[in-house]
Amino acid sequence: MLVTLLKMAWRNLFRRRLRTVLTLAGVSVAVAALCSLLSFQQGYQNGMKGELERLGAHVLVVPKGCPYDAASIALHGASWPCYLKEAYLTQVKRTEGVQTAAPVLMNANYTESGEAIVTLGVTPEILAVKKNWLIAGAFPTSNGEVLVGSAFAKKHNLVIGQTFDLPGSAGISLKVCGTLAPTQGADDTYLHLTLADAQRLMKRPGELTHILVRLSDPNEMEGVVGALRACEAGMEMNIVPLSHLFNTIQELVNSMRLLLGSVALIALFVAGAAVSNTVMMAVSERVREIGVLRAVGASKGDVFALILLETLMLCLIAGVIGCLASAVFAPFIEFWLRNRLPFSPTDTLVKPSLTLSLFCLLLTGIFGAIAGMLPSWRAAKLVPALSMK
User: Using one digit for the tens of pLDDT, what is the confidence trace for 317-367?
Assistant: First the structure.
């Protein structure tokens, strides 16, 4: 009996093809929006955790200015609008609770093709912060030596011991002393020089762009941050606790996600109402047919099940289309979101998964069942004698 009902429900869906296609389109858009939103939520949270792990620091010391811009520049690489005095590093290191303070001088040059060449001047202290680094070769110790990120080395075909001209900077030659294993982050594209060499090449003697600070005990964050702000150079530095910063950014993103989620939920409700209206119209057009079914022995339950199956089929087909559309358009959605977020991790933000797709299909089925209740009940209540008139 179930197989017969399924066959009848499938045939009935395509009686009014244009109406069915329009209903499918409405539900598919709502499901695609919901699936993309859930994928973004999961991807963004994982990306933020990954950024914190790759950076390795608990606190970021930057010049005075917007902490969001400073964090974004430090994580993604760019030229800085202002600088710190290298003398501040001594005070940061002396602060109680600071385990490691790694000074960094960052700069970005651009080639004629628009490629950003990000160079960083660092000291061996950075190895205590970037504990996930795996280096083939050696860390730079002399002028002209450079530690090359894996992506940069692959793109420019560089190997250890090779000398090359720095793209975007005329007359600067560097020797590859080591290559960095893939970190899945921005470090893969960076060039790391000695701090003194970077200051010489960038003509920034005695200056830094930021300091990566790792604490002895991350639970003492508040006390260490307070001590850094109270030191002699505290008024000249911006002390940014990265966990607090990311929590603030997460709250901003959650507000946007709540807005988008409300829109997606409203769209799903509207789509459900459209499905209910479509099936109700189909029931009105098939009053005589339903009367014949009742007259030849179909029970109220059979009629109810038939209409409900049609509704579920309609919604589940739309759900599959919506999940597939979400996967296909994920790169475009991610591009749109990256241009509007206050901070974007380097990891993929919108990454559809089978688990999320199945959840969206389940939710679509529940909405479909609710939307099909009223038309199914009305069809089951039709009296055969009156339906034949």
Answer: 888 998 898 888 888 888 887 777 666 667 777 878 888 888 888 888 888
Question: Whose structure tokens read 């409900």?
Answer: 308
Domain ranges of the chain: 2-50+248-387, 88-232
Note the pLDDT of residue 385.
61
Identity at 25, one-letter amino acid code: A
DSSP labels for 209-274? SEEEEEES-GGGHHHHHHHHHHSTTGGGEEEEEHHHHHHHHHHHHHHHHHHHHHHHHHHHHHHHHH
**What pLDDT, on the 0 to 100 scale, is given for residue 52?**
65
SS3 of 346, please?
Answer: coil
State the pTM of this model.
Answer: 0.62
H-state helical runs in the chain: 2-13, 17-55, 67-76, 88-94, 126-129, 150-156, 195-201, 221-230, 242-285, 287-295, 300-328, 330-338, 354-381, 384-387
